[in-house]
Design goal:
- With 379 residues, the chain is an alpha/beta fold.
- It folds into two domains: 21-193 and 366-375, 3-Deoxy-D-manno-octulosonic-acid transferase, N-terminal domain (Rossmann fold); 212-354, Rossmann fold (3-Layer(aba) Sandwich).
- Helix content is 38%, strand content 17%.
């Protein structure tokens, strides 16, 4: 209990120090719902029903649990930490909350049938309070990336205590299993990466342009211009630029203008007939992948992002090229066949020319995952 008391005191101190910053950031449209809900409990009451509780961080993780929720065929509670994750979760359940900051969990969290946490959402107080209330706990789709492994080992004293409160860990790979056990995980089973189960559907059909459609997908700061400047014979393609975050739409438009690139905004044209189309609407990337020939997968050509999900473009057989900074997606990259890794941005055109259509094995045994839950009497 001494550790828990000290941890709670530390978390409270951090909260008090960052309150001014939180109030300032909550003025930003991106955080106007999540920050007040998570850090001040505004419009964020505890779950009303005792159900299976899934906690997922973001959009991709929420989508990943959909097939499992469908298979359970029962009402569930879902918590998340991001706006995009919250909006997606509302499609799966009417019982959705933002997960509060840890100091609020002792009096916010109510007993559930089961707590299922996705991937690396290792919050000490969440698991501790759940166990105190008699809730069985699972870490699902667990992974430890190469880049984060050293940091986990430095905080071994913390993770050992976190895993003490986790009944079952379902890992993506044998490598993840070994690392998780080194950090203190007790019972670990390898079931594969559940993200291969995600439901990838076209919601709007668009006409494929005459030339090759090259999509710069989920791009981040500095990536759009970096990629455009390194694509030789740019006129050979129709280019679709899809920034990852909507708050960057106007900034990217200004950058394109300032650098002499002529383009049309998708919100006005609703097609890809222009040489360059800036996609300034959310929720269109899957629809664009469906008609794309080549995809430059963003978040990987600049450091500190870690790449993005390659399964979505691979689902449609696109030729996919990633940058070398894909450390958060290594498990998924290993699944995809023919995915090209561009290690030198100046050779980008070489990788575009040699790329082949991608594919991956879309099968994973959901029944095997559910059997662990039922056999352990977790549900």
């Amino acid at each position: 209990m001494l550790f828990t008391s000290l941890y709670y005191l530390f978390a409270t101190t951090i909260w008090l120090l960052i309150v001014p910053l939180l109030l300032y950031k909550s003025l930003n449209k991106k955080y106007k719902d999540s920050i007040p809900a998570r850090f001040f409990l505004k419009n964020n009451p505890p779950f009303e029903k005792e159900l299976v509780h899934f906690h997922s961080c973001s959009l991709g993780e929420v989508r990943a649990i959909k097939p499992i929720i469908d298979k359970l065929k029962q009402e569930v509670n879902i918590s998340t930490t991001t706006n995009t994750g919250f909006d997606e979760a509302k499609k799966l359940s009417k019982n959705v909350r933002f997960l509060p900051y840890e100091i609020f969990l002792p009096f916010w969290y109510k007993k559930q049938k089961l707590l299922v946490v996705l991937e690396a959402e290792l919050w000490y107080m969440l698991f501790f309070i759940a166990k105190k209330k008699g809730v069985k706990t699972i870490l699902l789709n667990a992974r430890i990336s190469d880049k984060s492994y050293k940091n986990y080992k430095r905080l071994f004293f913390l993770y050992k205590r976190i895993f003490k409160n986790i009944d079952l860990v379902l890992a993506q790979t044998q490598k993840d299993k070994k690392r998780l056990q080194e950090l203190g995980a007790k019972e670990v089973k390898v079931v594969g990466n559940i993200k291969v189960l995600q439901d990838i559907k076209v919601t709007q059909s668009y006409k494929k342009p005459k030339k090759t459609l090259l999509t710069i997908a989920s791009s981040h700061e500095k990536e759009e211009l970096l990629l455009l400047k390194n694509i030789k014979n740019l006129q050979e393609y129709h280019i679709a630029i899809v920034p990852r975050h909507p708050e960057r739409f106007n900034k990217v438009a200004d950058e394109l203008k300032d650098n002499g690139y002529e383009f049309k905004r998708f919100s006005k044209e609703k097609n890809f007939n222009s040489h360059i189309t800036l996609v300034d609407e959310m929720g269109e990337l899957i629809n664009i992948y469906a008609i794309s020939d080549i995809v430059l997968l963003g978040g990987s050509f600049v450091d500190n992002i870690g790449g993005h999900n390659p399964l979505e473009p691979a689902f449609f057989g696109c030729k996919v090229i990633s940058g070398k900074y894909y450390f958060n997606q290594k498990a998924l990259f290993e699944i995809v066949e023919n995915l090209e890794i561009c290690n030198d941005i100046e050779k980008l055109d070489f990788f575009i020319k040699k790329a082949k259509p991608t594919t991956y094995d879309k099968y994973i045994d959901i029944d095997k995952i559910l059997s662990y839950l039922y056999n352990k009497n977790l549900i």
